[in-house]
Amino acid sequence: MSMAAFPPPRFTDPTVFGRVAVLMGGTSSEREVSLDSGRNVLEALRAHGVDAHGVDGIPALAEALLAKKFDRVFNILHGQRGGGEDGVVQGLMEALGVPYTGSGVLGSALAMDKIRTKQVWLSLGLPTPRYARLARGGGVQAAARELGLPVIVKPSSEGSSVGVSRVLADPDLVAAVELAARYPGELLMEQMVIGDELTVGILGDKALPSIRIVPKGQWYDYHAKYVAEDTQYLCPGLDEAGEAEIGALALAAFRAAGCSGWGRVDVMRDRDSGALYLLEVNTAPGMTSHSLVPKAAQQVGIGFEELCWRILEQAVADDPAGGAAG
Predict the structure, then answer these.
(1) Domain match, 136 and 31 both
(2) Looking at the chain, which terminus has fewer C-beta neighbours within 10 angstroms, N or C?
């Protein structure tokens, strides 16, 4: 993939953005990651002359928007229930007519719910691992028998690998369900795909090169994502034909879930067959030193500061003089 795939930024004058709120922090389980992401985005936008200011959480944003303190919002909240990825804050901004980055109400709400995202994909014939929805406190053994071990057990609506367990044998099932059940919402049991873990960043209407994730340990968990320094990120993750296939699949999955603007689609590649399986969509991916969308953007010559600028551009109408659109 060459730089020609991405046209130059639409604007060069930072005043076109007006006063920008960088929405971060919040009250979800991913608060600390969001604060880290937000600080990086704030620094990047300010380095390019944008009048950007940090805002911690949805109540603070609501107060600021009602007082008409900001012209648009760069949303880097992560997660649900006070995070900004479940459609709630998007509805607030739509209601107040304030443009913002990332997916709208529908895409945000749907992608936050892994079970319903899979239902949409399956209805369109897009490949995703077989799964079972778990009622709290029951049906676990039966679901595991039906899917066949190994399986993944996880909350349906958490990110950053929070509450996720890999179950290789029956005795591990109880602990896996207990961990996932600490988080609100439904539980999801999914057939484990043995193979390569890949992720594809989406920027505008294009897929970035895939990244193949090779953790030092066996699993790419929260520690490997945010703490460990020995996780390998291979970009592009596949050969040319593989890149074309995974890019097209990721874009189709992103659009099917009603998502727009920017995001990341996580995919598994079966080691034996080479088949690709969709796992989930992240509508406000991390922007930390370990994060994957910036790594992929770098591969096509888009540095971190320019990436932030391009994402913010999505919150400006094609004719900025004619008013902005979310």
Answers:
(1) no
(2) N
Q: What is the pLDDT of residues 73-88, one digit of tens each?
A: 999 998 777 777 889 9
Note if 40 is an active site residue.
no
Residue that terminates a domain, selected from 176, 191, 206: 191
The Cα–Cα gap between 232 and 230 comes to: 6
**Is 266 a residue of the active site?**
yes
Model pLDDT, residue 180:
65
d(CA 254, CA 206): 11
123 is catalytic: no
Facing residues of 214 across strands? 232
Q: Which of 25, 26, 29, 30 is catalytic?
A: 30
How far apart (Å, rounded) are the C-alpha atoms in residues 298 and 124? 32
Q: Which of 100, 220, 226, 277 is catalytic?
A: 226
In this structure, the answer to whether residues 164 and 281 fall within a common structural domain is: no
The predicted structure's pLDDT at residue 62: 97
Residue 165's domain comprises 131-191
- Is 75 part of the annotated catalytic residue set? no
pLDDT at 123 over 90: yes
What are the structure tokens assigned to 215, written together?
A: 């953790």
